[in-house]
Amino acid sequence: MNPMIHRAVVFLAVAHSSLAASADAPKKHEVRGMVPLAGGTFEMGSEPSRVAALCQRFNTTHRDLFLPEVPAHQIRLPPFSIDRTEVTNADFKTFVERHPEWAPGRVPTERHNGDYLKHWRSGTFPSGAADVPVTYVTWWAAKAYCESSGRRLPTEAEWEFAARGGLASAEFPWGDEPPDARRANWSGTGLGAPTRVGRYRPNAYGLYDMAGNVWEFVEEPWTDDYSKTPPSPLPQDRHVIRGGSYGGGPINLRVRYRDSHPAGGAGPHVGFRCARSEIAR
How would CATH label the architecture of 3-19+38-277? Predict the structure, then answer.
Protein backbone atom coordinates (compact mmCIF):
# COMPACT_ATOMS: atom_id res chain seq x y z
CA MET A 1 0.00 0.00 0.00
CA ASN A 2 1.16 3.52 -0.76
CA PRO A 3 2.86 5.05 2.36
CA MET A 4 0.73 8.19 2.13
CA ILE A 5 -2.40 6.01 2.16
CA HIS A 6 -1.02 4.28 5.25
CA ARG A 7 -0.70 7.67 6.94
CA ALA A 8 -4.30 8.56 6.14
CA VAL A 9 -5.68 5.20 7.28
CA VAL A 10 -4.31 5.72 10.77
CA PHE A 11 -6.89 8.44 11.41
CA LEU A 12 -9.53 5.81 12.08
CA ALA A 13 -7.70 2.51 12.13
CA VAL A 14 -5.91 3.18 15.41
CA ALA A 15 -8.76 5.05 17.10
CA HIS A 16 -10.11 4.01 20.49
CA SER A 17 -13.80 3.90 21.33
CA SER A 18 -13.90 5.96 24.52
CA LEU A 19 -17.06 8.04 24.77
CA ALA A 20 -16.56 9.54 28.23
CA ALA A 21 -17.97 12.97 28.97
CA SER A 22 -15.89 15.99 27.98
CA ALA A 23 -13.95 18.00 30.55
CA ASP A 24 -15.58 21.00 32.11
CA ALA A 25 -15.11 24.15 30.05
CA PRO A 26 -12.53 26.63 31.37
CA LYS A 27 -13.62 30.21 31.87
CA LYS A 28 -13.23 32.43 28.81
CA HIS A 29 -10.62 34.72 30.31
CA GLU A 30 -8.34 31.72 30.78
CA VAL A 31 -8.21 30.68 27.16
CA ARG A 32 -7.42 33.70 25.02
CA GLY A 33 -4.24 35.64 24.41
CA MET A 34 -0.69 34.33 24.09
CA VAL A 35 1.61 32.38 26.37
CA PRO A 36 5.25 33.57 26.59
CA LEU A 37 7.82 30.77 26.57
CA ALA A 38 11.47 31.18 27.46
CA GLY A 39 12.68 28.78 24.79
CA GLY A 40 15.82 26.76 25.37
CA THR A 41 17.38 23.55 24.11
CA PHE A 42 15.35 20.39 23.61
CA GLU A 43 15.54 17.14 21.70
CA MET A 44 13.09 17.24 18.82
CA GLY A 45 11.77 14.11 17.12
CA SER A 46 12.46 10.43 17.77
CA GLU A 47 15.48 8.17 17.57
CA PRO A 48 15.38 5.46 14.88
CA SER A 49 15.71 2.86 17.64
CA ARG A 50 12.27 3.85 19.00
CA VAL A 51 10.33 3.07 15.82
CA ALA A 52 9.85 -0.62 16.59
CA ALA A 53 8.64 0.17 20.10
CA LEU A 54 6.22 2.78 18.76
CA CYS A 55 4.79 0.27 16.28
CA GLN A 56 4.26 -2.18 19.10
CA ARG A 57 2.70 0.37 21.44
CA PHE A 58 0.26 1.64 18.83
CA ASN A 59 -0.43 -1.79 17.36
CA THR A 60 0.63 -1.03 13.81
CA THR A 61 3.07 -2.53 11.32
CA HIS A 62 3.33 0.74 9.37
CA ARG A 63 6.80 1.97 10.29
CA ASP A 64 6.42 4.77 7.73
CA LEU A 65 4.04 6.55 10.11
CA PHE A 66 6.97 7.34 12.41
CA LEU A 67 9.86 7.73 9.98
CA PRO A 68 9.20 11.44 9.21
CA GLU A 69 9.95 12.28 12.88
CA VAL A 70 13.34 10.52 12.71
CA PRO A 71 16.06 11.34 13.68
CA ALA A 72 15.98 13.05 17.04
CA HIS A 73 18.10 16.20 17.03
CA GLN A 74 18.94 19.04 19.38
CA ILE A 75 17.19 22.36 18.79
CA ARG A 76 17.84 25.64 20.55
CA LEU A 77 14.94 28.08 20.54
CA PRO A 78 15.01 31.76 21.47
CA PRO A 79 12.10 33.13 23.50
CA PHE A 80 8.73 33.24 21.77
CA SER A 81 5.03 33.49 22.51
CA ILE A 82 2.28 31.29 21.10
CA ASP A 83 -1.50 31.54 21.06
CA ARG A 84 -3.27 29.74 23.88
CA THR A 85 -5.85 28.44 21.44
CA GLU A 86 -6.41 27.79 17.79
CA VAL A 87 -7.69 30.79 15.83
CA THR A 88 -11.49 30.82 15.88
CA ASN A 89 -14.14 31.62 13.30
CA ALA A 90 -14.87 34.88 15.12
CA ASP A 91 -11.18 35.83 15.07
CA PHE A 92 -10.93 35.12 11.36
CA LYS A 93 -14.13 37.02 10.56
CA THR A 94 -12.64 40.12 12.18
CA PHE A 95 -9.56 39.67 10.00
CA VAL A 96 -11.66 39.26 6.84
CA GLU A 97 -13.64 42.41 7.64
CA ARG A 98 -10.38 44.37 7.91
CA HIS A 99 -8.80 42.63 4.92
CA PRO A 100 -11.63 41.92 2.45
CA GLU A 101 -9.20 40.47 -0.07
CA TRP A 102 -9.39 37.34 2.12
CA ALA A 103 -13.19 37.12 2.03
CA PRO A 104 -14.86 34.11 0.40
CA GLY A 105 -14.93 34.59 -3.34
CA ARG A 106 -12.12 37.15 -3.33
CA VAL A 107 -9.09 34.87 -3.02
CA PRO A 108 -7.43 34.04 -6.38
CA THR A 109 -8.25 30.52 -7.51
CA GLU A 110 -4.57 29.60 -7.78
CA ARG A 111 -4.28 30.12 -4.01
CA HIS A 112 -6.87 27.52 -2.97
CA ASN A 113 -8.50 24.27 -3.98
CA GLY A 114 -12.02 25.67 -4.39
CA ASP A 115 -13.10 25.00 -0.81
CA TYR A 116 -11.85 28.18 0.88
CA LEU A 117 -14.29 29.04 3.71
CA LYS A 118 -16.90 26.88 1.97
CA HIS A 119 -18.87 26.45 5.21
CA TRP A 120 -19.41 30.19 5.62
CA ARG A 121 -22.63 31.67 4.23
CA SER A 122 -23.23 35.33 3.35
CA GLY A 123 -19.74 36.17 4.54
CA THR A 124 -19.97 34.68 8.01
CA PHE A 125 -19.49 31.42 9.88
CA PRO A 126 -22.29 29.01 10.86
CA SER A 127 -24.50 29.93 13.80
CA GLY A 128 -23.03 28.87 17.13
CA ALA A 129 -19.52 28.40 15.72
CA ALA A 130 -17.90 31.68 16.83
CA ASP A 131 -15.54 29.93 19.27
CA VAL A 132 -14.86 26.93 17.04
CA PRO A 133 -11.48 26.84 15.24
CA VAL A 134 -11.63 28.28 11.75
CA THR A 135 -11.15 25.61 9.08
CA TYR A 136 -11.33 25.54 5.29
CA VAL A 137 -8.44 28.01 5.28
CA THR A 138 -5.19 27.74 3.37
CA TRP A 139 -1.60 28.07 4.54
CA TRP A 140 -1.53 31.40 2.70
CA ALA A 141 -4.56 32.68 4.61
CA ALA A 142 -3.19 31.48 7.94
CA LYS A 143 0.09 33.26 7.28
CA ALA A 144 -1.68 36.46 6.25
CA TYR A 145 -3.89 36.37 9.35
CA CYS A 146 -0.93 36.07 11.71
CA GLU A 147 1.15 38.70 9.93
CA SER A 148 -1.75 41.18 9.97
CA SER A 149 -1.25 41.57 13.73
CA GLY A 150 2.54 41.46 13.83
CA ARG A 151 2.71 37.74 14.48
CA ARG A 152 3.58 34.73 12.33
CA LEU A 153 2.96 31.04 12.06
CA PRO A 154 5.01 29.04 14.58
CA THR A 155 8.00 27.13 13.35
CA GLU A 156 7.72 23.37 13.56
CA ALA A 157 10.26 23.32 16.40
CA GLU A 158 8.35 25.98 18.34
CA TRP A 159 5.14 24.03 17.91
CA GLU A 160 6.64 20.78 19.21
CA PHE A 161 8.37 22.53 22.11
CA ALA A 162 5.09 24.22 23.09
CA ALA A 163 3.01 21.06 22.68
CA ARG A 164 5.25 19.12 25.04
CA GLY A 165 4.54 21.52 27.88
CA GLY A 166 7.92 20.82 29.46
CA LEU A 167 7.50 17.02 29.36
CA ALA A 168 10.70 15.88 27.68
CA SER A 169 9.81 12.29 26.83
CA ALA A 170 6.00 12.12 26.98
CA GLU A 171 4.03 11.02 23.92
CA PHE A 172 1.14 13.47 24.37
CA PRO A 173 0.75 17.05 25.67
CA TRP A 174 -0.66 15.71 28.96
CA GLY A 175 1.78 12.81 29.46
CA ASP A 176 1.99 9.17 28.37
CA GLU A 177 -1.60 8.12 29.04
CA PRO A 178 -3.59 7.39 25.86
CA PRO A 179 -6.14 9.97 24.72
CA ASP A 180 -9.70 9.81 25.96
CA ALA A 181 -12.76 12.04 25.72
CA ARG A 182 -11.66 14.09 28.73
CA ARG A 183 -8.35 15.09 27.18
CA ALA A 184 -8.95 15.91 23.51
CA ASN A 185 -11.37 16.02 20.60
CA TRP A 186 -10.28 13.02 18.53
CA SER A 187 -12.01 10.14 16.74
CA GLY A 188 -12.60 8.28 20.00
CA THR A 189 -14.53 11.22 21.44
CA GLY A 190 -17.23 10.77 18.83
CA LEU A 191 -17.99 14.44 18.12
CA GLY A 192 -17.10 14.15 14.44
CA ALA A 193 -16.41 17.88 14.07
CA PRO A 194 -14.29 20.66 15.60
CA THR A 195 -15.51 21.91 18.95
CA ARG A 196 -15.05 25.23 20.73
CA VAL A 197 -11.54 26.11 21.84
CA GLY A 198 -10.70 25.66 25.51
CA ARG A 199 -13.15 22.83 26.04
CA TYR A 200 -10.44 20.47 27.26
CA ARG A 201 -7.75 20.92 29.87
CA PRO A 202 -4.58 22.71 28.74
CA ASN A 203 -1.08 21.31 28.90
CA ALA A 204 1.39 22.44 31.55
CA TYR A 205 2.18 25.61 29.56
CA GLY A 206 -1.49 26.61 29.53
CA LEU A 207 -2.00 25.78 25.84
CA TYR A 208 -5.25 24.26 24.63
CA ASP A 209 -5.90 21.68 21.91
CA MET A 210 -2.28 20.92 21.14
CA ALA A 211 -3.64 17.44 20.43
CA GLY A 212 -6.85 16.99 18.48
CA ASN A 213 -9.65 19.35 17.47
CA VAL A 214 -7.95 20.49 14.23
CA TRP A 215 -4.55 20.00 12.66
CA GLU A 216 -2.42 23.15 12.71
CA PHE A 217 -0.35 24.63 9.91
CA VAL A 218 3.21 25.63 10.82
CA GLU A 219 5.64 27.76 8.85
CA GLU A 220 7.85 25.21 7.12
CA PRO A 221 7.37 23.37 3.86
CA TRP A 222 7.23 19.60 4.16
CA THR A 223 10.38 17.51 3.99
CA ASP A 224 10.78 13.86 4.95
CA ASP A 225 13.92 14.67 6.96
CA TYR A 226 13.06 17.59 9.19
CA SER A 227 16.47 17.63 10.84
CA LYS A 228 17.67 19.10 7.54
CA THR A 229 14.75 21.39 6.70
CA PRO A 230 16.19 24.20 4.58
CA PRO A 231 15.22 27.67 5.77
CA SER A 232 13.11 29.02 2.94
CA PRO A 233 10.87 32.08 2.75
CA LEU A 234 9.20 30.67 -0.36
CA PRO A 235 5.96 28.71 0.13
CA GLN A 236 6.15 25.19 -1.25
CA ASP A 237 3.41 22.85 -2.45
CA ARG A 238 2.94 21.09 0.90
CA HIS A 239 3.42 22.38 4.42
CA VAL A 240 3.80 20.66 7.75
CA ILE A 241 0.72 20.18 9.93
CA ARG A 242 0.83 19.15 13.56
CA GLY A 243 -1.42 18.01 16.39
CA GLY A 244 -4.00 15.69 14.85
CA SER A 245 -7.71 16.43 14.63
CA TYR A 246 -11.20 15.33 15.60
CA GLY A 247 -10.88 12.64 12.92
CA GLY A 248 -7.52 11.31 14.05
CA GLY A 249 -6.38 8.36 16.11
CA PRO A 250 -3.87 8.27 18.97
CA ILE A 251 -0.81 8.18 16.70
CA ASN A 252 -1.76 11.51 15.11
CA LEU A 253 -2.16 13.19 18.51
CA ARG A 254 1.44 12.53 19.56
CA VAL A 255 3.61 15.62 20.06
CA ARG A 256 6.25 14.28 17.65
CA TYR A 257 3.92 13.16 14.88
CA ARG A 258 4.32 14.98 11.56
CA ASP A 259 2.14 15.14 8.48
CA SER A 260 1.73 17.42 5.50
CA HIS A 261 -1.07 19.28 3.74
CA PRO A 262 -1.21 21.26 0.48
CA ALA A 263 -0.59 24.98 1.01
CA GLY A 264 -3.79 25.74 -0.90
CA GLY A 265 -5.74 22.81 0.51
CA ALA A 266 -8.62 24.37 2.42
CA GLY A 267 -10.28 21.53 4.31
CA PRO A 268 -12.40 20.65 7.36
CA HIS A 269 -9.59 19.21 9.52
CA VAL A 270 -6.94 21.94 9.36
CA GLY A 271 -6.65 25.28 11.18
CA PHE A 272 -3.80 27.14 12.87
CA ARG A 273 -2.55 29.30 15.73
CA CYS A 274 -0.03 32.15 15.70
CA ALA A 275 3.32 32.80 17.35
CA ARG A 276 5.56 35.80 17.94
CA SER A 277 9.28 36.20 18.49
CA GLU A 278 10.30 37.75 21.81
CA ILE A 279 13.45 39.52 22.95
CA ALA A 280 15.56 37.64 25.47
CA ARG A 281 15.80 39.48 28.78
Answer: Alpha-Beta Complex (3.90)
